[in-house]
Structures are given as structure tokens and as C-alpha cells.
Amino acid sequence: MSKSVPAFLQDESDDRETDTASESSYQLRRYKKSPSSLTNLSSSSGMTSLSSASGSVMSVYSGDFGNLEVKGSVQFALDYVESLKELHVFVAQCKDLAAADVKKQRSDPYVKTYLLPDKGKMGKKKTLVMKKTLNPVYNEILRYKIERQFLKTQKLNLSVWHRDTFKRNSFLGEVELDLETWDWDSKQNKQLKWYPLKRKTAPVALETENRGEMKLALQYVPEPSPGKKLPTTGEVHIWVKECLDLPLLRGSHLNSFVKCTILPDTSRKSRQKTRAVGKTTNPVFNHTMVYDGFRPEDLMEACVELTVWDHYKLTNQFLGGLRIGFGTGKSYGTEVDWMDSTSEEIALWEKMVNSPNTWVEAMLPLRMLLIAKLSK
């Protein structure tokens, strides 16, 4: 069973509510396809349904990247305020943006920034949405609390989006600046500049740099309660042992913990966490999580998402993660972006499925993920 963790470990999802781990095992909830909707409950408890509109779990990159042309430009400036230890991104305005509403020739644009490689909610900053315009004026400062020396390892990603009345986002273009060689003392670099907006090159081939490793073991128990006349479902046990060589994103400090979600269920009840381990890049967790309600056929459709986070004050920064499953690209007949396991992750899952009632162990490299947005 997953042990509870302190309530200060704040969730990185949009609602920003404090999230604590479950103190009991969580039942994997199943669903089946139905003519009337994408999902339908197959029992009294149901798996959180995937969006029939999108066909996939939304990620921090959620939005429409292909329907609108990319045109126009954005005006902004960068400055590092030494007294505040803050990076300031002054977003002034955009001009000649693409029209999301072609008939009326207008959009409802806003600007979003990330400091890469962090694509979590901690690294995201946004301006207000400007209604019905292709030439929005913002004059807003987006602030990042970060030591100046750490900016050398960062890239600034600034993107422009249209947000419609249903809160769906459409991509209007982006600019990316490598801060490794940026001259912060140059007065010219602090002046407002116009940057042409560019298309997104790929759904984020983030960086391939080393993000550390996780040592873990899995076990599938087909019938945890033998002897009952009623058909029983199995359990998946996830033993998070330790992590090695985690990246340092804020100097010599690190306070890491691991979070687990069983996709496609993105509800809060699906999440379990380890305790946070501080002052080391090689934390030992030795924490076992149990998820029940697994039928044999569910093993083909589900995916274990393990993510490692650095907890700092009231925010969590993503360090790396794993997705352990069959990597088929589909779940219960629906194409999903999170069923993207690597060959090593697939091998561990296959070994677990083929070796019931036996712990199977591996040391897997952590990687960047398009993190599934979690529902309430």
C-alpha cells in the first residue's frame, strides 16, 4: 500500500490544489466502448473517460498545432534583475497574427512562456487573453525566480495561442531563445525587439541529455484472494527503490519525490506518491504502491506513469519520468499520445506480464515526457 506523504507536496496540475497520496490501494477502473460515447462504465465504478473530442489525454502541450497558419511577430524583451534574483520577460505586443475566426478576421490571443527543459506547470507563465484582435497589446512582465548562473542551462520558449470560448487552445506561433550565450549585461539585449513567429518543428523532441535513472521492480498478482467463487481481478505492485544521478536544476539543492499514475485514469484517486528525500541526487525511496482491479486484458491497455519531481517551496519541478506499458499507441481502441513506452520500458512490462507472482527488476533511464494533464 502507498503510504501517505506530507500535504505540502503540491500538485503541478492547473487547479493547484494540494495533493496527498492514497493510504489504500486503488482499484483500476475499467470501461468499454459504446456506440453512444467513447467510454461507458463496465461496472459500478468507472474509469475516468478519455475525451471523445480529442481522443487522447491532454498534455501540457495540449492544443491544435496544425489548423492555423503561423504568421506575424511578437515584441518582447529580457532582463535579469539581480536584486530580486529574477528573470523578467516583458511581453509588449503582437502584430499581424493569424485569424482563428476567419470570417470576422480576429483571434483571442495570449502569450505563454516556458524555461526549458522544464515543461511542467511550475515553468509556465501566461499573459491575459486579449479578445477579438490580431494585434494584441499586453505590456505584462512574466517573472521567473532563478539564479543567474542557472540560466545558462535554459532555453526560453515563448508561444502565442488563441483561446476560444470553450477554453480550447490553437497554436499561432513561437520563438525560442537559447540563454546559454545570452549577454545579460548588454543594454541592447534589454531593449524591446520584434521576433517573427515560427511553426512548431515537432511535438517536442525535448532534449536527450541525461536525466538520471530509476531502479524499480514490478509484480503482477493475478488472483490476490484465491479460493473465492466470484471471479477476481489482479493487482499490479510497483516497488520504487531508488533514483541515481538526478539532475540539479537549482544548484546543489534537491528534494525529490516520485509520483505514480495509472493511465488512462487521470483522476486524483489514481495518484500515489513517495515521501520526499532531500539533499541527494541518489535518493532511496524503497516505496511500494499497489493498484488492484486489473483483468489480464487491462494489462494491454494501461500504462504506469512514474514521474520524479524536485519539491521547492510551494512548487514542484519535473526532473524526468518513465511510462511502462506495451507502447502500442492505443488504449481501449483509442489512439493516445501517452502510450509511448521505450523498448526498455516495454521489455520490463512484458517480463512482468509473463512472470506472474514474481518481482521483475530493472534500472531504467529517466526521460522527458509530455505529461498527461490530471483531472480532478
Structure write-up:
This protein is mainly beta and 376 residues long. The protein has two domains: 57-196, Sandwich (Immunoglobulin-like); 212-224 and 232-366, C2 domain (Immunoglobulin-like). The protein contains two helices and 22 strands. It has a five-stranded mixed β-sheet with strand order 1-17-13-12-22, covered by helices on one side. Strands 14, 15, 16, 18 and 19 form a five-stranded antiparallel β-sheet that branches. The chain has a four-stranded antiparallel β-sheet with strand order 8-5-4-11, with no helix packed on it. A hairpin with an 8-residue loop joins strand 14 (255-263) and strand 15. The model is unreliable at 1-65 and 202-208 (pLDDT under 50).
Key features?
2 helices, Immunoglobulin-like, mainly beta, five-stranded mixed beta sheet, 376 residues, single chain, disordered N terminus, five-stranded antiparallel beta sheet, 2 domains
